[in-house]
Each structure stands twice: as structure tokens, then as C-alpha cells.
Design goal:
- With 101 residues, the chain is mostly helical.
- It is built from four helices and no strands.
- The relative contact order is 0.05.
């Protein structure tokens, strides 16, 4: 733990606030993202960023997909144990009972 940085937290915050007040201009805005809930902060930032990019709606074309070929049932996947999988770290947050299968 960096005790000195904790002791200087107010100084850092004051300096940041002063910098933002003096450098925020109509053509170069500073935006603060509330980040108590990180997932919400990321989504809010993405939405804000996208809202600053001019765009027009593009209609989706009609797509005719070919009929899917029927399975020959000749393929069988090898056992999962033969592969190296990335651990499902996200499942630890979601409480997924199938995590780390």
C-alpha cells in the first residue's frame, strides 16, 4: 500500500479539479465518468463516445440465406480433456455453476 499517496489524496484531487477547471474549454471538453459501478461506467463511456460521432441510419438489406446442409452425423468432437481452455473467470462474478468444467 502506498501510504504517501493516501495521505496526499486530497492534494491530488484538488490539483485534478483545478486542472480540469482551467483546461475545460467549449471546444475541448473534459467529461467525468462516474465509476462506482465499473460495468455501468464502461457502458456510459461507450454510449457517450458513440454519441459524439456523426452517423446516419443505414437500412439493413434483405438477405436470403441458403438452406443449411443436413448433418451427415459422421463428425464427433474429441473429448474436452484433449484441449487447453481459457478459464471462465467471468463466471466467478456471475455464480455460474458450470464454471471451470
Amino acid at each position: 500500500m502506498d501510504v504517501e499517496s493516501i495521505n496526499r489524496w486530497e492534494d491530488y484531487s484538488r490539483a485534478k479539479d483545478e486542472m480540469m477547471l482551467h483546461t475545460d474549454t467549449p471546444t475541448n471538453r473534459w467529461f467525468v465518468v462516474e465509476s462506482d459501478i465499473k460495468k455501468h461506467a464502461r457502458l456510459n463511456m461507450i454510449a457517450h463516445l458513440l454519441s459524439t460521432i456523426p452517423h446516419t441510419e443505414v437500412p439493413a438489406p434483405d438477405v436470403d440465406l441458403p438452406k443449411r446442409l443436413t448433418s451427415t452425423a459422421n463428425y464427433q468432437r474429441p473429448p474436452r480433456e484433449q484441449f487447453s481452455y481459457v478459464p471462465d473467470y467471468a463466471a466467478t462474478f456471475l455464480g455460474d455453476p458450470e464454471a471451470n468444467r
